[in-house]
Amino acid sequence: MTSASPRTESAGLGLFVAMAIGCGIAVANLYYNQPLLGLLAADFAVSPATIGMIPMATQIGYALGLFLLVPLGDIVDRRRLILLQSGALVVALGAMAFAPVFAVALAASIAVGVASTIAQQIIPFAAAMANDGNRGQVVGIVMSGLLGGILLARTVSGIVGEHFGWRAAYGLGVALTLGLAFLMAAVLPRGGGVPARGGYLRLIASLADVARRHPLLIKSSLVQATQFWGFSVFWSTLALHLEGPDYGLGADVAGSFGVLALVGVLAAPVSGRLADRRGPDLVIMAGLGAAAVGFLAFAFWPGIPGLIFGVVVFDFGVQLSMVAHQARIFALEPAARSRINTVFMTTLFAVGAIASAVASAVFAAGGWFAVTMLGLGATVVGCLIHWFWRPSV
Fold it and tell me: What's domain 6-388's superfamily in CATH?
């Protein structure tokens, strides 16, 4: 287990709030593209189905970064990793902002995804600073920043893209990421993992052993992946749905739905405290139920009111279960928290990348109702796994 520095042991609310802000800025870069898909498709002269490759590429890049970079937090200084990745992210965002053709934008999207895993270095860092009695609360605080970044990214990029062009949205991402680097350099303590025998390759190979030792980690990864499938299905097609003939609305309106979904941010600290006090199982089931209700609203409550209600309930449910799962898995093996996070988040984003690509094709073939059924079906699968699979810790 890593030894804590004096600064780590005395970590207070201000440090965790700063880490939450850092998570939000980092993860926002994954979602700038979603309300901009119509603008990107028009600029690069590609079809709606083809432009769906942009969010897919970003999430594939994120999954690669989770697998290849996040485990390093168990053996090296996480602060150094976070600062190095911030520099790489600035370069990737700049490449996206100036991409002359679709192929370059696709490659830059992968690079943005890889470098944006800064957030997944910060979360286990915060968990390591917490104690067993408040780990859920600490994870909830940091996750509230991450979730705020996910949701506000769509609002900000939608507004900027509609009025100044999609490239300006990525230029804003460059400026915010530079701010992230300065903030993390100022507040994060030094120190990280214990060097592993065999170095990097052995560290990566040990991911399978970590998953094998902890069947509860596998269950949590699969259940939350079903919710992330629904999350990706909804947000990767919302802009296309709103820009269609039934609504005729722009990217700024699609992005504004992120403000409504900020209600879900309130679920993060609530979920963390409940998981600390009552255990995570009930919280996870409540989150799955709320997500299902959200998809039913998308499917059967037509118009903007149904979308508003569905976004609020659905995102609240996803975040309830997300924080409860993370509070559970970070308690499994303290010395392997970064690798545990790698297994968990790689599963989520690999599934999310597939979902984004499938959703675009399903939307083109079957419209909005088919997309909502795709998300609802995954949520039902998550409920079944959670209810019937009872692995030992």
Answer: MFS general substrate transporter like domains (1.20.1250.20)
